[in-house]
Hints:
single chain, Ubiquitin-like (UB roll), 2 domains
Amino acid sequence: xxxxIRAKEVRAVFPDGVVEVMPTPAAIRRAQELGLxxxxxxxxxxxxxxxxxxxxxxxxxxxxxxxxAKKKQHIIQVKEVKFRPNTDxxxxxxxxxxxxxxxxxxxxxxxxxxxxxxxxAHVDLGKKLLLRFSEDLKEVGAVEGxxxxxxxxxxxxxxxxxxxVPAAKPKExxxxxxxxxxxxxxx
Length: 187
């Protein structure tokens, strides 16, 4: 900005639409005559592009743009659902429904089967449970690989599936016109 610009010449852009290549000190002087600052917009261009504008206003707009961009983004979290190799059907359904909700919210789901004690001898039961889980959720979640055994835990990760949004139904003419007046009673 202003005197911090090191280039000998800049392509100066002024608010009245004038664009010209001029020495940096002359561009700074002209911007200050207009009551503005000379801000380097594209330092890698040949010659560098500098724009005459209010620095405080420019800073405010940049901050607002970054804030709006953050507001629109969705942070994907990994939600974890834990099972044991001999999890009962009701518990399985309850946890499956939670996983469906997580996937519909746009989060990833990590299903974990924990083995304790002698259960580690039945790793095949845990892998069957994870495969059943991934099969039950194939409409809402895509599997990211096969079940993996790490220590005393086997896990699988599911990502949300993008579902095509059905087209909105056109409104009927009666609904668009508003409420109907009450009809006269017939005698």
